[in-house]
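INTERNAL AUDIT FORM
Audit reference: QA-55
Scope: verify that the stored structure record matches its stored sequence.
Auditor: D.O.
Record contents follow.
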Amino acid sequence: MRPPRTLREALLALGLFAFGVIGLPALVYLVGLELVGEYEGGMLGLYEAIAAALVSGNAFAWILVLSPYLSIQLFRFWLWLRRQRKAVN
């Protein structure tokens, strides 16, 4: 039996939020290391800077952390629009 839709959505949101908080900053750090060079505080310094920005309500930090979930939602919206257009035609 499949879990209820709201539970699946909550688990998806939680998992992608966790990736946005833990995995995505690590990827940003590694790409930045190759393109720009060493971050002044290392990877831990980047995590601390992002955490401080989240606590202070910095919109860019929140967009970074929420971007995995928002990307999935935008993709779902695009699929829904395609289905709506096919239904009209």
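Auditor finding: record pair retrieved intact. The CA atoms of residues 76 and 82 lie 10 Å apart.
Action required: none
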